[in-house]
Amino acid sequence: MSSGIRKDVQIIRGFAILSVLGFHFFPETFPNGYLGVDQFFVISGYLMCLLLHKSSQKPWYSLIAHFYFRRLKRILPLYFLIIFATLLSISWISSDFLFVKNLKSAKKALFFMSNIPEEEKAEIGYFRKVSFLKI
Fold first, then answer.
1. In 3-state terms, what secondary structure has residue 56?
2. How far apart are CA 47 and CA 52, in angstroms?
3. pLDDT (tens digit, 9 = 90+) per residue, 58-99?
4. How far, in Å, CA of 54 to CA of 47, rounded?
5. In degrees, to the nearest 5, what angle opens at C-alpha 65 toward C-alphas 71 and 58?
6. How far apart are CA 90 and CA 97, in angstroms?
7. pLDDT digits over 99-112, tens only?
8. Four-residue CA torsion sign, 50, 56, 61, 67
9. Residue extents of the structural domains in the chain
10. Neighbours of 83 (CB within 10 A)
């Protein structure tokens, strides 16, 4: 295992992905699929501890900062691409009214503020959380 990739962790990650997807697409069949998110947190914590243990000669805070920097460098470009692609597809398939509402929602998503309540009660937007669907 010279590459440093542990197959057992990858298998747990795969089960976590399948359980979350199952919960989203078949909630009656996978009622506890949301627990896959907890599995991701456990895996992340394990990988952080492994990183700290292997690199104990460096200060722990620089290792944690490096850990999160690498993840943000990997995740943020795709995050922004998805927001842009969603807005682009909404502009092609929906009315101007929905595009304007989704544009407001996307602006909040760009600054990671989607969960901050708004004054408008009837806000429509793809990136806005829809709590009545999360029953």
1. coil
2. 9
3. 787 887 888 789 889 999 999 999 999 999 999 899 888 888
4. 10
5. 125
6. 11
7. 888 898 899 899 98
8. negative
9. 1-54, 60-135
10. 18
Give the up-direction half-sphere exposure of residue 97: CA atoms within 13 A in the CB hemisphere: 3
- The radius of gyration of the chain's CA atoms, rounded to the nearest angstrom, is 19
- Dump pLDDT digits (tens) for 20-46: 999 999 999 999 998 999 999 999 888
| Residue 58 tokens, joined | 């460096």
> How far is it, in rounded angstroms, from Cα 29 to Cα 48?
33
Taking each helix axis from N to C end, the angle separating 60-93 and 35-54, rounded to the nearest 10 degrees, works out to: 140
Residues 102 and 125 sit within 8 Å (Cβ to Cβ) = yes
The overall longest dimension of the chain from CA atoms, in Å, is 58
CA distances from 2 to 5, 6, 7, 45, 75 (A): 8, 10, 12, 22, 25
Give pTM, 2 decimals: 0.57
Token pair for 39:
């599995």
